[in-house]
Please model this.
Amino acid sequence: GYMSGAQIVVVFDGSGRPSLETGDLPAKDFFAGVDIMFSQKGKSADDLIIDIVKKLREDGRYEGLVEDCRNPIVVTDDYAIRDGAAALGAYVISIENFEKAISGKTPVQY
Model:
């Protein structure tokens, strides 16, 4: 979804999703301006996030979900995701700094 010029994608592990047995994952949903993705069976959300970042950095798009974005921002407190995304050239921001930025309390700090 697009909010204030930014497309927001939230990624969850698909293991608890009812449609997991159908093999349809990654499932894509849309709610309140936010695109929601669930990882496939046997793949973690962490891995999916890194795959999305890699594809965006290479092609600027990801499976029709995100287009024209070569500089993604990853919001996480997970060290492995942070390090993996940063190594691929993504901007990484902590959840605390993201909350401050969207509340207008402070500028975004990567």
Observations:
- The first helix runs from residue 45 to 59.
